[in-house]
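Complex record, four chains
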Amino acid sequence: MGIQERKGREKEQRREGILQAAERVFFEKGLQAATMDEIAEVAELSKGTLYLYYKSKEDLYLAVMLRGMSILTDMCRQTVAHGSSPIETIVRLLDTYYEFFNKHRQYFRMFYFFNNPTLHTQVTDEMRAHCNQHNQRIWSVVIDVFVKGIEEGMLRSDLSPVELGIILWFSIHAMLMRIDNESEQWKENMGIDLVDLREKQAALLLDAVATPEARKRYPHLFKIAQPTIAS
Amino acid sequence: MGIQERKGREKEQRREGILQAAERVFFEKGLQAATMDEIAEVAELSKGTLYLYYKSKEDLYLAVMLRGMSILTDMCRQTVAHGSSPIETIVRLLDTYYEFFNKHRQYFRMFYFFNNPTLHTQVTDEMRAHCNQHNQRIWSVVIDVFVKGIEEGMLRSDLSPVELGIILWFSIHAMLMRIDNESEQWKENMGIDLVDLREKQAALLLDAVATPEARKRYPHLFKIAQPTIAS
DNA sequence: CATAATAACTGACCGTTAGTCATTTATTAG
DNA sequence: CTAATAAATGACTAACGGTCAGTTATTATG
């Protein structure tokens, strides 16, 4: 009897429908201002039903966010697949994150959720585990490139691949967050364009982690003057 | 008649009392879980009275946060005042932020508030202006040092002092945030100690912004091997 | 001192919303 | 056709931020 399977599919469709409704509302209003009642209305279901599929508003929010992480992961995988050398791939990965930031701003903003664990009161352990899993997935993509970069002598080897990846990724992410939130202030108060600065930051960081061999081999990737040459 | 002045003082004391009560509760519970009723109880006032002094829960939260910013600003001023050279002062400033992070973790966490503007629904323009003001204050302290560093030829001059300051400060802040929130995960999943990594990051960044002159003059401040020498 | 005027404070109340659960409706099995 | 099971509902609860009519305390006035 295929009834079991059909039921399973239908349940999956419900979950998916709820997810889409939630995405629309969360994108428009954000976590705080979105209400379960509105999501239920958009999903054309009663609120009670939402709770049959997701344990809490926050779980539902994270379920949407996981889609964003999947998109980012796919984009990074693409970049890695099409990249030629590790050093070039790293440059492209930084741009990929920026591209994701621009194309999927709403998803990017959902990542902020993790910045404030005080708010994580209603996240189930199960969902937390899911997030962890997705997170590891994307990091493994990124770190692989750094491993190869070190192997080929293109990246400094006094730091581990993971360490290098963390330093670059954290820094870029931080800048994107500020671009999202504080661009206007920096422009007005200091005359600084954070979007321009992001590029400079990327160049500076690349320069800081690359070896002289890398600079020799891929001079076009190094846009910033080496201060060591200056004097 | 000094009645006006006395009244003014008393009002100020009320504000201060409310602030202290709010601090206790916010530190213990965080923005979300803290309730105005509990703050009122701790302050030994009715909830209505709180709203005579602060326009919203979020305004009150930010008022507490501003104390944290003042502490950080003072610590940075101290560091700058006692520092000898700009390059050394920069190293010390990075440590100062880390010291603040350790000694005043609860204040540091309040800074997260700005990471998620979706939540800023109840902040008054007045309070926002206050925050802006305090923010500029601390940045001016930091940036001054970078100005001097460039003037003395100790910092690369292809980026402006503000740009250099932003890149370093953002990166360090991002790392501290992760240390606060994700230390365990990184330890478990990847065997990475983010506290150790913070030092390496600081060293790497310092190295990226300093000139060869600086390295020559203050060799003890540069703990990371220059990859340029490697080959 | 008595009384009016003003300022400070109170807490019951309101609107909103996340989450629950007894009940109803739809589906499947016998 | 009926019982059993699964799915969906929406009225209800509890909690909380914010309000405001009314009370209390303080100051000014005659």
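Note: Chain A touches chain B through 60 residues (CB under 8 Å).
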